[in-house]
Structures are given as structure tokens and as C-alpha cells.
Design a protein that fits this description.
The protein is mainly β. The chain has a domain at 62-161: Immunoglobulins (Immunoglobulin-like, Sandwich), CATH 2.60.40.10. It is 10% helix and 54% strand. The protein has one helix at residues 2-18, and strands spanning 33-45, 48-60, 64-66, 70-77, 81-90, 98-103, 108-111, 122-130, 135-145, 151-161. A hairpin with a 2-residue loop joins strand 1 and strand 2 (48-60). Mean pLDDT is 78; it is low at 12-36. Keywords: Signal. Residues 31-59 are annotated as: Disordered. It holds the Pfam family DUF1573. It comes from Paenimyroides ummariense.
């Protein structure tokens, strides 16, 4: 009886923890991200050194794009692993930050980029799927970002055979 009560309590806590939603835009002051860059240059002419400094500010939201949002591994044997790298591109004018990457199941492990993605640049995000259960599988990876939407969803699929 104690084991049953413990299992029920653990299941209830697990479900509540998975339903936590984070919105990246709530982490951004005044609804838009801001990046400030200061550049200092020095020039020497006839023994006189002149120093100039310029500051530029980026405001707005980054725009995220992917090489694919759904990856199908096809058939995988039970007990094997599938690995894919999603390419994340920043098509906006400010740095893109992947704040968090969470999978819908413990059998799927995303490895998010640790550095901000500069405008016009891209980064790879590796996702490893462990084929633990037979049958058709579909797992979501939710990215919490500093984009206007605040989150993006990627999907991996597989038909796991015995």
C-alpha cells in the first residue's frame, strides 16, 4: 500500500513538473532584446594618437529558422540510438539565444548551443533519441528562445522494431 501511494505521489509530481511553461519574452525587458556594442579605435599620425569610440545598439527580436523542424529516423531497432543535428539560423538583426531545450521524454536528449547565434550565422543542435519502446514514436523538443514567440518546437520520429 505504501509503495502504491509513493508511486501515485511521484507520478503526480512528475506531471506537474512537465507542465511548467517558460516564456522567453517575459525574460526580456520592455518586450524586445537589446544588445549594445562599443568599438574603440586608435590611429597615430605624425606622433599624435587619436582615439575614437562608437557605440551601436541592436533592438528587436531575432528571427529563427531551421534546416528542418521534423526529422524522421525511419526504422530503428529497439535498444539502438538515432542522432540528428538540427541547423538553427538567425535571420534577424540581433543575437539569438537558445535559453533552454527540453524534450518531451527522457529518451530524447537535446544539446543546445551554448553561445548566442549572431545575425546571419547558424549553429548546430545535436539530438539523441534512444529507441527504448517498440512502435511508432514521435518526440518533441521545445526550445525556449529570445524570439518574439518565445518558444519553438522540433520533432523527431521513428518506427522502432523489435
Amino acid at each position: 500500500m505504501k509503495k502504491l501511494m509513493f508511486a501515485a505521489g511521484f507520478a503526480a509530481l512528475s506531471l506537474m513538473a512537465c507542465n511548467k511553461k517558460e516564456d522567453a519574452s517575459s525574460l526580456i525587458k520592455d518586450g524586445a532584446s537589446t544588445t549594445t556594442e562599443t568599438t574603440t579605435t586608435s590611429t597615430t599620425t605624425d606622433g599624435v594618437t587619436e582615439t575614437s569610440s562608437s557605440t551601436s545598439a541592436q533592438t528587436g527580436f531575432p528571427k529563427i529558422a531551421f534546416n528542418e523542424t521534423t526529422h524522421d529516423f525511419g526504422e530503428l531497432k529497439k535498444g539502438s540510438k538515432g542522432e540528428v543535428e538540427f541547423e538553427i539560423r538567425n535571420e534577424g538583426t540581433v543575437d539569438l539565444v537558445i535559453i533552454d531545450a527540453k524534450a518531451s521524454c527522457g529518451c530524447t536528449v537535446p544539446e543546445k548551443p551554448t553561445e548566442p547565434i549572431k545575425p546571419g550565422k547558424s549553429a548546430k543542435m545535436k539530438v539523441i533519441f534512444s529507441a527504448n519502446s517498440a512502435g511508432l514514436q514521435s518526440k518533441n523538443i521545445t526550445l525556449t528562445t529570445n524570439t518574439e514567440a518565445g518558444s519553438e518546437v522540433l520533432t523527431v520520429k521513428a518506427n522502432v522494431t523489435e
